[in-house]
């Protein structure tokens, strides 16, 4: 008889997190910084948990796997990973690491209130890399790691002060500095896609062109469809497109669709209604509104002006 799956522990607070994994209790209730060199991976790390917290982790010399979604990823190299609330994470050690490769790095764990309930106003940054998949973890240069580690040291110092009226705005501001650096380094990484094959943008353009030519009269798939085919997250695909083209993924899809519409309007005798249906639009009126929004002309005006 198959044994039932172990229940997930729900970690709603930073205190829950430290208690569950056997780390030192936090001084501040909203954020803690953990030195992984001082905490060889405890047995508790193999226990499943559902975190309602954010985590930023720099890992080095971890021998084992981190199940994430339906896949598992090795953590032997030093990379920076970002984890949003609601992601089930379970670290699975793979034996004892060599003495020269003791786990190193740091982990910043913080409550969503630091982003959403700032006393000084809305959080200034937007950080889609919390939605990236693990395989889009940030590979840091030594200089970049030094910048981030210095920012984390400042966070640690403030988080170890007794909580007072200034703590939350100071922690939010210092956290924003850390995340702004991460944003800069991620955007540095985008132009250096692997050179062993077509880059991500070229592969996306090929997929999109193939779909537009072969899937007539079908609605254009959502961004998630193309991201899944490219084995990346929608957030990562959107950031790469924005970096290279200045458009997000949805804007890019609409642009490609309107370009095909222009070709059909100029090279065929299809009516506006038939053109809309051939592009996968269920509502010709919506097609006409989108076309005018993107070109400044209705489809009929565009055809007449040609």
Give an overview in words.
It is a single chain. The protein is of the alpha+beta class and 306 residues long. The protein has two domains: 9-192, Jelly Rolls; 200-305, Arc Repressor Mutant, subunit A (Orthogonal Bundle). It has eleven helices and ten strands. A hairpin with a 2-residue loop joins strand 5 and strand 6. Helix 9 crosses helix 10 (284-295). The termini are far apart.
User: On the 0-100 scale, what is the average pLDDT?
Assistant: 75
Q: What's the helical proportion of residues? A: 40-55%
The percentage of residues in β strands lies in 5-15%
Q: Strand order of the main beta sheet, please?
A: 2-10-4-7
Low-confidence stretches: 63-77, 93-100, 192-198
* Count of folded domains: 2
Termini separation: 72 Å
Structural class: alpha+beta
Q: Output the number of helix runs.
A: 11
Please tell me the CATH architecture of the largest domain by its name: Sandwich
For the report, how would you describe the main beta sheet?
A: 4 strands, antiparallel
How many DSSP E strands?
10
CATH class of the largest domain: Mainly Beta
């Amino acid at each position: 008889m198959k044994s039932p799956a172990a229940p997930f522990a729900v970690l709603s607070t930073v205190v829950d997190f430290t208690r569950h994994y056997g780390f030192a209790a936090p001084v501040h209730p909203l954020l803690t910084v953990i030195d992984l060199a001082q905490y060889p991976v405890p047995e508790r790390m193999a226990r499943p948990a559902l975190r309602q917290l954010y985590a930023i982790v720099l890992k080095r010399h971890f021998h084992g796997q981190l199940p994430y979604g339906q896949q598992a990823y090795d953590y032997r190299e030093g990379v920076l990973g970002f984890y949003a609330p609601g992601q089930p994470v379970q670290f699975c050690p793979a034996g004892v690491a060599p003495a020269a490769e003791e786990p190193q790095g740091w982990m910043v764990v913080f409550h969503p209130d630091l982003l959403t309930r700032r006393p000084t106003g809305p959080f200034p940054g937007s950080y889609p890399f919390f939605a990236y998949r693990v395989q889009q973890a940030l590979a840091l240069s030594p200089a970049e790691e030094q910048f981030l580690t210095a920012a984390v040291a400042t966070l640690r110092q403030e988080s170890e002060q007794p909580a007072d009226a200034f703590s939350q705005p100071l922690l939010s501001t210092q956290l924003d500095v850390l995340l702004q650096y991460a944003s800069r380094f991620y955007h540095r990484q985008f132009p250096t896609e692997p050179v062993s094959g077509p880059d991500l943008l070229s592969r996306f353009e090929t997929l999109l062109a193939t779909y537009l030519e072969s899937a007539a009269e079908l609605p254009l798939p959502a961004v998630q469809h193309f991201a899944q085919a490219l084995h990346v997250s929608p957030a990562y695909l959107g950031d790469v497109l924005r970096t290279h083209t200045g458009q997000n993924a949805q804007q890019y899809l609409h642009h490609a669709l309107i370009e095909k519409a222009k070709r059909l309007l100029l090279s065929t005798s299809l009516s506006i209604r038939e053109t809309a249906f051939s592009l996968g639009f269920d509502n010709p009126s919506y097609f006409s509104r989108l076309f005018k929004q993107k070109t400044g002309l209705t489809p009929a005006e565009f055809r007449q002006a040609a």
